[in-house]
Structures are given as C-alpha cells and as structure tokens.
Amino acid sequence: MAYVIHPRESRPFSFLHPAMGGAQTHPTVTAFLQLDTEQIIIRYCKEHKDVQPEALWNALTYKPKHFRWAGADLFPGVTAAGRHEMVVLEVNSCPSGQKYMPHGQGMDSSYHKLMDETFRDTISSKCDPSLINKPLAVVQDKNPIENNGYASALADITKEPVYVVETYLNRPKEQNIRWTDGVLEVRDVEGQWHAIRAAFRYVTQKPWTRIPLTTKTVVFNPIACCLSGGRNKLVAAMAYEAFNKQQEGTGLRVRIPRTFMRVTKAQIPTVVQALHGKAVIKIPYSNCGQGVYTVTSQKELDKLMALDLGYEKFIVQSLIGHKNWSSSQWHHACTIPDEEGREYVFDTRMMVYYENRL
Fold first, then answer.
1. How far is it, in rounded angstroms, from Cα 198 to Cα 207?
2. Using CA atoms, how far apart are residues 233 and 239, in angstroms rounded to an integer?
3. CB neighbours of residue 204 within 10 Å
4. What are the angstrom distances between the C-alpha of 29 and each of 24, 103, 334?
5. Which residues contact 49 (CB under 8 A, 6 or more apart)?
6. Between 217 and which of 101, 144, 171, 184 could a Cys-Cys bridge form, CB atoms 3.0 to 4.6 Å apart?
7. Exposed/middle/buried for 278, CB within 10 Å: 0-12, 13-18, 19+?
8. How far apart (Å, rounded) are the C-alpha atoms in residues 220 and 108?
C-alpha cells in the first residue's frame, strides 16, 4: 500500500547510510563539485591535451530528451605502460549511492538538488494538462533509505504530500499500482486508488513488466531509458561503439573492456578461451551487479554452463583483474596496501543528472 510523506520546513536527519557516521566529502571531490562547465573543460583539457575543447563542451552541454538521471560504475585501470585510465563497467537508469555521498543537511541535501533541479523541471515541461492537479509519487522496489529521502525532498520542494508505493516483480497479487489509459494509479492504506501526475521511478527489476513504455503520467526516468541502454547491456555496448566512432579525431572515447556481443550460450566457452580463460559474462537485461558472472577457471565456467540463464544471447567481456593475470588491456589499480600488505579491488559510482542551465 502507498503511504504519504508530508512536506516540512526542516528535517532532522540526512538520509545517509548509518555506516557513514560523520563522513565528509574529500577536499578534491568538494573542489570538483564547485567547478562550472567551462572550468571542468579547461581542467580536463589541460590534463588531456589530445582532447578538443569544443567536442567536450558539446558532450557536457548536450540536452537529453528522456535520460536525465543516470549512474555509471567505473574501474580504475592501469595499462601495460603504467597509464591510469577509468573504464566503464556499466550504466544504469535508477542509480543508487546517494546515501553514501555526504551532503548538506535538510534542504541542502543532494536529494533536494536532484528533485529541484531535474525532476521538477521535467514535471513542468512534460506534465499532461489533464493531470495537473493530481498528486506526485515515488515508486520503488528496493533501497528504502534513498527513496524516502527523495520522497521527503520532493514533498519539501513542492509543498505537497507525496505517495510512496512499493511494486515487486514476483508479487503479482500484492501490486499496489495500476495503469488506466496511460495514467498511473496508486492504492493507499485504505484501498483507495489515486491518479498520479508524475512519478519518480526507482524500480530496478525488469521495470517494463510493471510500467508501460508510453504513459500520460510523467515517469522519471521513463522505461525507454532502460531499454535503450540503461538496463540493456547489449544496446549499451552498441552505443559505446557508436559514440566512439562519432568522436573519432576529437580525443574523446568511452573506454570499455574488450567486448563480444550476441554470444550464444554454446559459444561462451570458445569466447572465454579466446580471453585466456578469464572473462565476465553478462545477461543482456540487468545491472547493479545482477546477472554478471566472473569466470577465472574451468570449474567456474562449468558451473556457469550448468545454469538456466534465461536468455539466448549474452555479452562477454575481458576481465580487468590482477596485474599478473588480467585478460584485459588494463589491470586493476587496487587500493593502497594496508598495514598487512593487502590490496582491494573497488569500483567508483558516478551519478549525473541534467540541469536546465550551465
């Protein structure tokens, strides 16, 4: 059932994960977040002299029509020549991580910034006139800390109540949402249905099974973002190739591991062998680490082949691993060794959103 979060003038806590404690952003991160677009371009081109400033300006000021909020997972890689480079692992269209990012308290939180600078602008430009007086909602299937943060921020900014409703892939009898002529309706605790003018979507598990491709209710992000690469790894890989081809000669490119597309299950062992027995196999529709299988031995490959993977074709990539056995052109940079000499693999989550100003 949907519950309601009401607006407040101030909020006593910041919707951070308990593990964050009194964490603060690193001075380097703080300084970066204070740069404007032109300053970012100057700094970047100073470090990357082969990049054309105009091309970078066009990329950073591009106005997305649908995909206005996104996340990317990056590996810090090191080439054989010792050059440090960031490599894209995947992107997604409902990125988590806000609860791990220290930010200002109350109305200065990152939740409020996303809701105010991107979601509210989307509502004003795309809202169906027939729904203008209907309420707002946050629709989710995981990550309650962040979704309550987004709902609270949305209520604070708009000065109106916001419905928060859960919808799960494998619970058809418990569905609390329905669609009527393209309009999202949510069911409250009393069993009453309410039409929604705009919804912030944090539905990650095959969201197209519960949300239509086209809707009257504004959905942020729309399902088209998932199908066109946000959760479709095959289309995303094709998009990276298309972008790199388009940017030839500008110095810009998306770095990704060596990628084999449309690989059938029967072909997986051959492709893994071509990658020296170490590879990453991905189902086409998933993210957040789900549907991703790492193979570093024959035993792991046999275990993978015995699974019912639910798809006919897959993406297979080289594995960015240890410097002594990586099957990629990069090995992982790892963390600085601790007191016992241990190093750890990590990735970096980058979250971006479109703001209708430079």
1. 16
2. 10
3. 22
4. 10, 12, 19
5. none
6. 184
7. buried
8. 21
CA distances from 34 to 23, 39, 42, 69 (A): 19, 9, 14, 19
Residue 312: strand pairing partners: none
| Radius of gyration of the chain from its Cα atoms, rounded to whole angstroms | 22
CB 58 within 8 A of CB 226: no
**Consecutive H or E run containing 58:** helix 53-60
Residues 188 and 178: beta-carbon distance below 8 Å: no
In Å, what is the CA distance from 83 to each residue of 45, 76, 86, 330, 334?
17, 10, 10, 9, 14
Q: β-pairing, 292-295 with 279-282?
A: antiparallel
Q: Which residue has the tokens 């729309």?
A: 222
What distance, in Å, lies between the first and last C-alpha atoms of the chain? 40
